[in-house]
Amino acid sequence: MLSTLLYWRCLLGKIFQIYAAEGKRTVILSAGMFTQDFMFLALYWILFNNFESLGGWRLKDAALLFGISVTAIGLILFLCRGLIMLPYKIYDGSIDIYLARPRHPLVDLTFGTASFASLGDILCGLVLIAYASQGFSWAQGLLCLFLVILGAVIFWASLLVFYCIPFWLLNAQRLSDQLFEMMIIASFNMLHGQPLGIKIILFTLVPAGFVAYLPTLLLMEFDPLFLALIMMAAVFYAFLAVKIFESGVRRYLRG
């Protein structure tokens, strides 16, 4: 366990060295993503400019939801974009290299590739959280950071499940990408106006509701039940994702 943690730290160090070496590229791509996120948020601004509130939600609440979502997603894409390459490694057999190592293969597969642009997501999210959390107590601020981490764990678990599909289905890369994009888009949305069937999907099969929507409700009005649900969801989906990955590996090794 200790050796894995030390290896993980070294791997993260290498990722940050790559970012530092590609400073100009990192700044340009991050600035582009930062701008893109604010353009998306402009839709909320236009909406709330015409309606003071929607279902009790105001612009600050929408900004908080969007900020939590893009920060959690940005953290995972910043550190764990390697999972998106998993289908290609399955198809060309290069996953064998990772399976032959003494460590759990998810360590290398998860942190194998970094995303320069995702730094813009993280920065945009933190700016929005800072704007929306004006008036928060220290306890609420710490809770918000904790919820971002939980949302990131749930997003990572979902990403892993989506990109494990090619273990069972050939040429399923596009399906995995579509589920990934659906997860991102659904994480940005207020769900209180959605049909019951959509809500069930977004809290089960595609658990986007746990990434930002439920955390935002919790910060708007603290409810220990919501906090317990989010924590249990993070543990459950992370455990499930690892088990699905290990099942996929066994399927792969059987040929």
Structure description:
The protein is an all-alpha fold and 255 residues long. It has one domain (24-254). The chain contains twelve helices and no strands. It has helices at residues 2-21, 23-50, 59-80, 86-92, 95-99, 105-110, 118-132, 138-162, 173-187, 196-202, 213-220, 224-254. Helix 3 (59-80) crosses helix 8, helix 3 (59-80) crosses helix 11 and helix 8 (138-162) packs parallel to helix 12. It is globular, with a radius of gyration of 19 Å. The two termini are 30 Å apart. The mean pLDDT is 86.
List the helices and strands and how they pair.
Elements: H1 2-21, H2 23-50, H3 59-80, H4 86-92, H5 95-99, H6 105-110, H7 118-132, H8 138-162, H9 173-187, H10 196-202, H11 213-220, H12 224-254
Helix pairs in contact: 2-3, 2-7, 3-7, 3-8, 3-11, 8-9, 8-12, 11-12
